Amino acid sequence: MTWFRNLVQLSSIKEPIRKRIATPNLLTSLSHFSSDTSNGVSEFSGLEPTKPDQKPRVVVLGSGWAGCRLMKSINTKIYDVVCVSPRNHMVFTPLLASTCVGTLEFRSVAEPIGRIQPAISRAPGSYFYLANCTGLDANNHVASTFGIHGVAENAIFLREVYHAQEIRRKLLLNLMLSDLPGISEEEKRRLLHCVVVGGGPTGVEFSGELSDFIIRDVRQRYAHVKDYIHVTLIEANEILSSFDDRLRQYATKQLIKSGVRLVHGMVKDVQPQKILLTDGTEVPYGLLVWSTGVGPSSFVKSLDLPKSPGGRIGVDEWLRVPSVQDVFSVGDCSGFLESTGKPVLPALAQVAERQGKYLAQLLNRIGKAGGGRENGAKDMDFGEPFVYRHMGSMASVGRHKALVDLRQSKEAKGISLAGFVSWFIWRSAYLTRVVSWRNRFYVAINWLTTFVFGRDISRI
Predict the structure, then answer these.
(1) Are 70 and 6 a contacting pair, CB within 8 Å?
(2) Fewer CB near the terminus (10 Å): N or C of the chain?
(3) What is the SS3 assignment for 381?
(4) How far apart are CA 149 and CA 147, in angstroms?
(5) CA distance 244 to 412
């Protein structure tokens, strides 16, 4: 939600971790940090291997939902924690779509790593490295493009804060360009046509936020172009396919009522100013947001590790990578091996969070039993395996309406709600799930400010 891959290694390894400055990225490897100037490049020393009188070290690669939940619950009296990530914050992905149109400020959905686990900022043996890793590229969190030509070059994804910033800048720039005298009507319609590909919760919520932005703010402040701007949501199957049928129908009606055009089709090719569907339809656009889910990166695919169906790193019932000792995989990059008899879990924030919490509890038990060092947990009983219980799904569809589906699966029975009450539950639930009280205050104030004064449409 995050969005959103993390590999955890209990480290007391004999080989050194080498850290070197590379262009354009800062690279680290998964041993212990040292220095090597044999290639003539000046490098700096890093962490030495842990000594017997020191705490064992947990290395967390990535700062998504799973990794941050792990770091929050890990017992720092037992372990030193080292986090390696290209970003120094966690993104609260369920509210990321709201930042694109100014409902929330970007800092409201970004939680610093040092606040999630204070030991990283204070403890002498715990550190944060703003870096990429040669062992596992934590920055290559790739959205699934299904091999469609032109997606990476022309579309904007919606998983990180900088994605939301780029969407907001592009949207406001198109509004200003379309308001210039001399622009043809055809070009004005293209610039102001916002296309969203993917009918999952992220795509639907972004479409709803965008339609609210158009109705409440754009039509008041850009009177010359108010009749030209519109939103199209493209989905190959049904929108919100995991939700109850009644809720899907309600969402469809609400989106159409908000002015969102729904198109059932598959994208064949993406060009700089238009997309082509498989039925030959051409769809011109000024802003293209790609929200079709997350697939494994090319790096994960290249790892010489057992893979689950779909190409993720295969794990057993305790989230261990079976072929490597003391290594666990949680989050979007992991999936149960077929031998476990369990299905691959969806790439959702609540899945990653549960995995991170379970793994932290498991590592705490291992550490208390003296198995925190290299191969120390080899013959240890890990206890109960990881079991995921779905707590339900929520999605906002704009105009102060939302969906709440509390069923544990698509086939199960349970409570499902839609409308204003669901929207209130949606906001209340996410407000309580924001990590820190500071950000909860930010979110609440942003919502109040937007309600009273409207959204901020300045382009910074």
Answers:
(1) yes
(2) C
(3) coil
(4) 6
(5) 10
Say what the pTM is: 0.81
Backbone angles phi, psi at 375, to 5 degrees: 60, 10
Tell me which of 40-44, 154-158, 269-273, 347-351 is least confident. 40-44
Q: Which residues contact 233 (CB under 8 A, 6 or more apart)?
A: 196, 199, 203, 204, 207, 239, 255, 260, 261, 262, 263
Provide, for the chain, the percentages of residues in helix, strand and coil under a 3-state DSSP scheme, each rounded to the nearest 5. Answer: 35, 25, 45
Which residues are within 8 A (CB) of 362 and not within 5 positions of it... i.e. 6 or more apart? Answer: 318, 319, 382, 383
Confidence of residue 306 (pLDDT cuts 50, 70, 90): confident
Sheet holding 327-330, edge to edge: 127-130, 80-85, 57-61, 6-11, 327-330
Sort 447 into a burial class: Cβ within 10 Å, 0-12 / 13-18 / 19+. middle
Q: Which two tokens stand for residue 272?
A: 């700089």
Amino acid at 255: L
Q: Which helix (H) or strand (E) holds 203?
A: helix 201-213
In this prediction, residue 346 carries a pLDDT of 87
Residue 38 in this model has a pLDDT that exceeds 60: no
